[in-house]
Amino acid sequence: MSTWSLKIGVVGFGSFGQFLAKTMIKQGHTLRATSRTDYSLLCLPMGIQFFRDVAAFLEADNDVILVCTSILSLSEVLSSMPLTCLKRSTLFVDVLSVKEHPRNLLIKVLPEESDILCTHPMFGPDSGKDGWQDLTFVYDKVRIRDEAICSSFLHIFASEGCRMLQMSCEEHDKIAAKSQFITHTIGRTLAEMDIKSTPIDTKGFHSLVQLKDTTIRDSFDLYSGLFLHNRFAVQELENLEHALHKVKEMLVQRKSEELGLEKTEC
């Protein structure tokens, strides 16, 4: 695999963008950033050039533009970018937790000569704080002409020991609706129930409390984005509701049987 130092421009320099940037800088890549919030003072000691002017950011001759916005703000952010300022063909990469939505938007708004790589690092600042070894990185080469740039970007994650998994955006969203979305839904439901640790916790219940605590650390915007922009999530939510109803019916049926048995014995 041919690799070299990349010039990477980060759009959206929140906690996840900062998390990825630290490893990219460590590997020797040159980073620029732009964001709605002014992160100039944060970027300075990291050696990252921060642009308040998005047009100047796009003119800065980036090899890669890494989109780290929230799911809900992606459309607005892309539509506000003066993409005619791009000086050459550029690889656009997103890292959102849904994949069909950014793929469709990027295809719609980007110049035809821009390459598109849709990715989802299946980890974040908490799970990846001690390194990325054996953590999963999902990607889909939606539109790639410059294989060298694409390979060099993917090498950032492969060289850190990530499990590289190539998968279509559609397949990703199908699986994520059954896994990530349901995980967040259960966690949010437990939070609504206000479950807390007790003096007699089993290991199973302790895991549920941990799940609740982990999911509510993520914003409701992230959770609602997993629902609003993954077309498979609605069905999974209905499946969960149906399953809970079925379990309740089984318990009611067993209770009815037990009551009938007690009457017979009397």
TrEMBL record:
<dbReference type="GO" id="GO:0070403">
    <property type="term" value="F:NAD+ binding"/>
</dbReference>
<dbReference type="InterPro" id="IPR036291">
    <property type="entry name" value="NAD(P)-bd_dom_sf"/>
</dbReference>
<dbReference type="GO" id="GO:0008977">
    <property type="term" value="F:prephenate dehydrogenase (NAD+) activity"/>
</dbReference>
<dbReference type="InterPro" id="IPR046826">
    <property type="entry name" value="PDH_N"/>
</dbReference>
<keyword id="KW-0560">Oxidoreductase</keyword>
<dbReference type="GO" id="GO:0033730">
    <property type="term" value="F:arogenate dehydrogenase (NADP+) activity"/>
</dbReference>
<feature type="coiled-coil region">
    <location>
        <begin position="230"/>
        <end position="257"/>
    </location>
</feature>
<protein>
    <submittedName>
        <fullName>Arogenate dehydrogenase 1, chloroplastic</fullName>
        <ecNumber>1.3.1.12</ecNumber>
    </submittedName>
</protein>
<feature type="domain" description="Prephenate/arogenate dehydrogenase">
    <location>
        <begin position="6"/>
        <end position="266"/>
    </location>
</feature>
<dbReference type="GO" id="GO:0004665">
    <property type="term" value="F:prephenate dehydrogenase (NADP+) activity"/>
</dbReference>
<dbReference type="InterPro" id="IPR045011">
    <property type="entry name" value="TYRAAT1/2"/>
</dbReference>
<dbReference type="Pfam" id="PF26213">
    <property type="entry name" value="TYRAAT1_C"/>
</dbReference>
<dbReference type="InterPro" id="IPR003099">
    <property type="entry name" value="Prephen_DH"/>
</dbReference>
<dbReference type="Pfam" id="PF02153">
    <property type="entry name" value="PDH_N"/>
</dbReference>
<dbReference type="InterPro" id="IPR008927">
    <property type="entry name" value="6-PGluconate_DH-like_C_sf"/>
</dbReference>
<dbReference type="InterPro" id="IPR059064">
    <property type="entry name" value="TYRAAT2_C"/>
</dbReference>
<dbReference type="GO" id="GO:0006571">
    <property type="term" value="P:tyrosine biosynthetic process"/>
</dbReference>
<keyword id="KW-0175">Coiled coil</keyword>
